[in-house]
Amino acid sequence: MVVIIEPKATDEQIQNVIKHLEDYGFQIHKSVGVQNTIIGAIGVKPDFDIRKIKILDGVADVYRVTAPFKLASRNFHELNTVIDIKGTKIGGNEIVIISGPCSVENEDQIFKLAEIVSKSGAKILRGGAYKPRTSPYSFQGMGEEGLKLLRKAADKYGLLVITEVMESAQIDIIGKYTDIYQIGARNMQNFPLLKELGATNIPVMLKRGLSATIEEWLMSAEYILSSGNPNVILCERGIRTFERYTRNTFDISAIPVVHKKSHLPIVADPSHATGYRDQVPPMARAAVAAGADGVMIEIHHDPEKALSDGPQALLPETYLKLIDELKTIAAAIGRELN
Ligand code: PEP
Ligand code: MN
Prior knowledge:
Blueprint: E1 2-5, H1 11-23, E2 27-32, E3 37-42, H2 51-54, E4 59-63, E5 83-85, E6 88-90, E7 96-100, H3 107-119, E8 124-126, H4 144-156, E9 160-164, H5 171-175, E10 180-183, H6 191-198, E11 204-207, H7 214-226, E12 232-236, H8 254-261, E13 266-268, H9 270-274, H10 280-289, E14 294-298, H11 316-332
Parallel strand pairs: 7-8, 7-14, 8-9, 9-10, 10-11, 11-12, 12-13, 13-14
Antiparallel strand pairs: 1-3, 1-4, 2-3, 5-6
Helix pairs in contact: 3-4, 6-7, 10-11
The structure holds phosphoenolpyruvate and manganese (II) ion.
């Protein structure tokens, strides 16, 4: 931690800052310049609240040097984490495609879409059975019936399953059907849920919260990792900004930032990040170019009748064409995609 002292601070105030730092267990290195005094406080304390120093008289500013997350940090785990789920690797050189509808709606729908997903060469079928809807009057998902259909459709085409878990009470039931738990944006900081998923041995895909900083997102990953589950995938799904022509603002820069700060794989979700069908292919292409380890895309054969997120669902033909384009981009940056 670096503490910048106010130019007008008195010796007494500086001594008081030093005393506080020492009492908190830091080793002190004081540098006195012509204008400014800087105090280096050495000691790894990821949970230290720097406001305790910021608030002291004579302190101009305080900067943290060590990130507050540890298990999620690349500093402590240099190599990429590669998660192997029944032979499908997430976080390696191959870019994984996750696709399917927003919600499982009925048998015919999920089987039709699973066939398209398989035809595209994607390995993972998505579909919500428990849906986090903004309105309590919107379709809330089919529940266990939806999970059964999703699993059946995935098994028919040899696909893995990912589906959202919204609360602790759903962990066991969803665990019977899924290969990956999805934590939705709205639950990114539901710490009790994160801890409970951390105690399972099923991989977890953690979506970025609506207004979460990357550091807050990595701290949430830290909750899962520190509870014993090393298999965490991050998912950038756009953040809330002032822009209204898109549903969210797709933070592509999060991809290289996460790769630098963390060893965990990152998947991009251009569907929720934009909210509009015409914006999805360009952002999917950009995500692959930016280094995403996977892309999640919502599709629907009849989006006008979809029970959720129809406007952002790609039609099968557009989706298949997009996957071909993504293959070209992946090859151009030395990655595989099939
Ligand atoms: C979803 O993937 O269906 C979903 C609800 O996404 P998010 O949590 O990112 O809004
Ligand atoms: Mn959706």
